[in-house]
Amino acid sequence: MAVERSAWLVILLAVTACAGPASGPEAVSAIAPCLPSAVSAQFFFWPVVGLRTVAVPTEDGKPEEASWVLYRRGHAAVAAMWIRSDLVAVDPEVDTDRPEWIDLSLVMVVKGELVLRRQPEAPCRWARWIHSEVRNR
To answer: What are phi and psi of 8, to 5 degrees?
Structure first.
C-alpha cells in the first residue's frame, strides 16, 4: 500500500511540475525535466496507462524504489523511470528493441545494471543504454 501511494505521489509530482500556462513546445521545455534531444516533452501531458515499481540499487548497495510510468496517446507510447522527482530513464520507443535513454548524471551502469549515484553529477547527461555498454549521443 505504501509503495502504491509513493508511486502515485511521483506521478502527481510529475504532473504538477508540468502543469501550468504552457502554450507551446518552448513553454513545455521550460517546465519539464531535462530530456534527451531526440525526445519531446509533450508526452508528460499524455495519459498514464501503466505503472510498475522496481528496485534500483544505490552505490551503497541499498535498493531505492523507482517507478516505471507508461504514458500513451493513440498508438504512441513513452516509458519513463522516476526515482523520487528525478527522471533517470526514458524509452520513447517502447514497442521497439531500441535501447532506452539513461541520465548518466543520476545513474551509472555497473555489471550491466543501473546503479543510482550517491551524488548526482553535472545534470542532463543522456546516453543510450545498450545493456552491455552505454553510448553517448
So the answer is: -65, -30
Q: Is the pTM of this model over 0.85?
A: no
**Residue 18: Cβ-neighbour burial (10 angstroms; 0-12, 13-18, 19+):** middle
Alpha-carbon dihedral angle through residues 99, 88, 43, 84, given to the nearest 10 degrees: 150
For the chain, the domain total comes to 1
Q: How many Cβ atoms are within 10 Å of 78's Cβ, its own excluded?
A: 21
d(CA 67, CA 54): 6
Range of the domain at 51: 2-136
Helix (H, G, I), strand (E, B) or coil at 62: coil
pLDDT digits (tens, 9 = 90+) for 37-50: 889 999 999 999 99
